[in-house]
Amino acid sequence: MESPAFDLAFEPAYGRAVPVAPDVERITAENPGPFTFFGTNSYVVGSSSLAVIDPGPEDEAHYQALMAAIGGRDVTHIFVSHTHRDHSPLARRLQAATGAVTVGQGPHRPARRLRDGEVNPFAESADISFVPDIALGDGETITGDGWALTAVLTPGHTANHVAFGLEGRDILFSGDHVMAWSTSIVAPPDGAMADYMASLDRLIAREDRMLLPGHGGPVKEPKTFLPALKAHRLSREQAVLARVAAGDREIAEMVKAIYRDTDPKLHGAAALSVLAHIEHLMERREIAADGPPSLAARYWPG
């Protein structure tokens, strides 16, 4: 199963602001991990008056690096792509220091209700206390001094995920929806594969020349990368269907076969990704189960 041309070359330059486009700087938090790569990227947009995108985790060194990059300039808005604890918590401290207005799609919420007996495996990663001052609808624009950012709603990774298009520059801040180094985690009930795929189609239809993600380096060729990413997701879906057709009845069996070349430490996340695909397939009646879709259910062809 071929993957998109993922780019693992990245220098986080912890503690320093790295110019990535005119009037756009990236500061990477030192919170590396299997889901964050080298860490969370925060972006400072503007020259005399600024916007900060994804302030990041509550981390003293990252806060100091952001304040150094701001350098006493006016910060009018703090944009948050989604409410995971590696992206939004520092917004509170940054707002207190700058007086900026916070902007996002809305507070954290799951893509669907928890089913009876179900436990949200990523509940601890949610920043449920963040509520933006301004809740943007799709296509709404916030304008600052020399910059304008437009909301592109991209649910899937989380229900409240939003990307931000830098008007007149063909640059999209893609958060965790699309990243150059890896696929995004789509884990029910917080995430939903049907939403993710529809959001991916939205980005494919756009004319962005560069995506600046929440982790890792830029996506420099969106026109080729995005269709390849969609094809990769569809191939995973077909792999799930093939495993069910071959007689696999439980997600654990499917993960061992489909992700046989993946670090076993990531098989838990892979199982949630398979569950997300199964939910999408069951909505289309291509897979059946002995009850609601879950990690413990048994499956067979629809």
Report on this structure.
This protein has helices spanning 60-70, 90-98, 193-204, 222-245, 251-258, 267-283; strands spanning 18-21, 24-28, 41-46, 49-53, 74-79, 101-104, 134-135, 141-143, 148-153, 162-166, 171-175, 210-213, 287-289, 299-301. It is of the alpha/beta class and 302 residues long. Helix 4 crosses helix 5 (251-258) and helix 4 (222-245) packs across helix 6 (267-283). The radius of gyration is 19 Å and the shape is elongated. The mean pLDDT is 96.
List the main descriptive attributes of the protein structure presented here.
5-stranded mixed sheet; 302 residues; 6 helices; alpha/beta; 7-stranded mixed sheet; elongated
Count all strands and give the number.
Answer: 14
Q: Uncertain regions: pLDDT < 50 for 5+ in a row?
A: none
Mean pLDDT over all positions: 96
* Morphology call: elongated
The radius of gyration computed from the alpha-carbon positions, rounded to a whole number of angstroms, is 19 Å
Strand content: 15-25%
Please trace the helix and strand order, writing H or E for each element.
EEEEHEHEEEEEEHEHHHEE
Biggest sheet layout: 7 strands, mixed
Distance between the termini: 24 Å
Number of helical regions: 6
- Helix/strand/pairing category: alpha/beta
Sequence-ordered SSE layout with sheet pairings:
Layout lengths: L17 E4 L2 E5 L12 E6 L2 E5 L6 H11 L3 E6 L10 H9 L2 E4 L29 E2 L5 E3 L4 E6 L8 E5 L4 E5 L17 H12 L5 E4 L8 H24 L5 H8 L8 H17 L3 E3 L9 E3 L1
Parallel strand pairs: 4-5, 5-6, 6-7, 11-12
Antiparallel strand pairs: 1-2, 2-3, 3-4, 8-9, 9-10, 10-11, 13-14
Helix pairs in contact: 3-4, 4-5, 4-6, 5-6
